[in-house]
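Reviewers asked in the last cycle whether our approach scales beyond single polypeptides. To address this, we selected a multi-component target totalling 832 residues and predicted its structure end to end. The input consisted of the following lines:
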Amino acid sequence: MEYDYLIDNGLLITMEKGLPIIEEGSVLVKDGVIEACGQTNEFVGVNAKNHIIADKKIIMPGLINCHTHLPMSMFRGLADDLPLDVWLNEHIFPAEAEQVNPESVKKWSRHSCQEMLLSGTTTCCDGYFHEDNVARAIIESGIRAVTGQGVIDFPAPGVPDPKKNIQTAIEFVKHYKDEFPLLSPSIFCHSPYTCSKETLKAAKKAAIDLDVLFQVHVAETQNEVKMIQKLGNMSIVEYLESLEILDEKTLMVHSVWIDDKDISIIQKCGASVAHCPESNMKLASGVAPIPKLIGKNIPVGLGTDGCASNNDHDLFAEMDTVAKLHKVALLDPCVMDARTTLKMATIQGAKAIGLDKVTGSIEKGKRADIILVDIQKPHMVPMYDPYSSLVYSAKSSDVNWVMVDGRILVQDQRIL
Amino acid sequence: MEYDYLIDNGLLITMEKGLPIIEEGSVLVKDGVIEACGQTNEFVGVNAKNHIIADKKIIMPGLINCHTHLPMSMFRGLADDLPLDVWLNEHIFPAEAEQVNPESVKKWSRHSCQEMLLSGTTTCCDGYFHEDNVARAIIESGIRAVTGQGVIDFPAPGVPDPKKNIQTAIEFVKHYKDEFPLLSPSIFCHSPYTCSKETLKAAKKAAIDLDVLFQVHVAETQNEVKMIQKLGNMSIVEYLESLEILDEKTLMVHSVWIDDKDISIIQKCGASVAHCPESNMKLASGVAPIPKLIGKNIPVGLGTDGCASNNDHDLFAEMDTVAKLHKVALLDPCVMDARTTLKMATIQGAKAIGLDKVTGSIEKGKRADIILVDIQKPHMVPMYDPYSSLVYSAKSSDVNWVMVDGRILVQDQRIL
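The resulting structure, written as structure tokens, was:
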């Protein structure tokens, strides 16, 4: 039997159960699938068309970015350090009205895909408007993605009449479903404060009927909590539960202002959370209770959010930040240890967006989403514990080589 | 007149008063001194031995790392995610006892200097033991530095008898003072909880007599505050003031657990602060009231701390973190804006360690500590505001070229 790739002799971090480390490890790939992984000496004499030497590098699964608005890289650094309402109403909304169109959406989505691939991200979960143009950029780039056409009760780019918001989102899903193996369409309902009860219910019903992920921003700011409380003295999570929005296929983005009761509801319903620490910090939204969510075995993935509020797609930086943020917020240096953090950016992120059977770890049978990380630069030396090195010392610029679904997309830090 | 270098046609961020930006800017260097800077078209026909084209790059002052323990890169990632006492007593102290010697100190200081130079840092302020070996590594590397031999009331590497701690520190200063233009010796007194009243006073007296900077860790943890309170129901800052430790040549490192009264004392005395946000986060020490300190015009610089508690020397990452940390801690997106943050990492840092006449900005008459930052990679595009791009998007790997005191030390991301 001839394989496509033998990735050989690297420090193999599989992120599979038990988090084993193989010091001299190899991975075999054929037809986009991981056929085997293990000790390098087990693969002597194996026949592969391409031999990738991973000497002095970590072999690990590609990172999963659980929350993006890819086209928003066009607004990177447009307006920073401002109060949230000034930022949104005076800068971002007017800029969106003026600059967001099918061409710009495609152009900047392509740009964001390049940025993500160069920094070791092999899967993202996106939601925006003109999402068909996002999808086209994603397909061209070769990255894996979940994508959702935005549903919001206001005139939006590409959907001037909000009455058509759900139908547009449904058509998007129908168009892309099962058509492109790397692209999983979904429904992206903006939030409980920008969508009515009826919109939320109808959008979730569509997601259930179509059997796709339902993404929704939840409890990002204190203001939002107050707005929803006015509707019936409920927390946002209780409100969403009452609308039957929360289940195993719901991704709750942000979830900053939630309490223990809310966490129990999320756990009971089986919903997942996308945590965007840098965005929450930069917009001064707050610190989500992530260690508590993880303690309840709720799948939590890591997201960068859009580039208007971060301002990049760098999950290595995000890992470093998330591990440190929760320590200082809880005055406990033991929370968010390096292993938990790296799981959040890989296998738990994959689980949060419903792709853990496909990606998020290096295991026989999974698709080959693999990156190589250089460990020779001064900031990576010495290395006592590869998990610690990856979370606290590695930079996205250490990512040297990226494979998605068995295709090499980055080599020597360059997009192919 | 023939100059040594004309650095030409870059986006010039001088960090001088008023923070002017020159879109097509140039800098002239002779004998290690900045002779002129301004619009590129003003320099047509100027005669320079070396012409550095800074096209598609930012020209800016090198960054100032206000708190390091350079040899501690040998412990990078040795022990993470642990309670402070376990980390110190079971890991760091035993490792120091076993591994810290003149050779290892020199080796890992050299390693840290390389890491700093590659990431755009041109000045650091260091304190450790065997500091003469740190100093030798620094001099060989060509970086600018303030260095202090550690004073502590316990047996320490190289100073087994604590009775000799101050004399050793004084000898260090005398040996290096005015000998090496890039190296400013200082006294590094560990902390009020590891040094007696007598040691603190004697060490500060030595610093005054020798006219050098006095570095001291202050109020890093809540525990430390409680320990000092037992001495006389005073805050740490009040205690240090009562010992006449605080003046314009005192650098208070950390200053996390201080209140408004303490801040008034610091302001009155004219002391400076070194803020180490990532170290304070990772060790779960707390969030220092930096926006308040800056509001009182107290010079605050940025530091990485040692690599056992960060785990790198990356001031670009530190800038991104510090700008976001204080926003979320105060739930105010306007604090620590990009300009304030970049000042902290350059001119204010230089001021905090007493080198603002020498470095920290690109101005006629200052020493030529200059870096070039690539602005072409996807994460730096688009660029609406260079300050925002440098703080929120740039990575240390974008640093392409580094000059210290008129000598090129990094070219094309490699140490020369």
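The longest strand of chain B covers residues 3-13. We regard this as preliminary and will revisit it once experimental data from Aim 1 are available.
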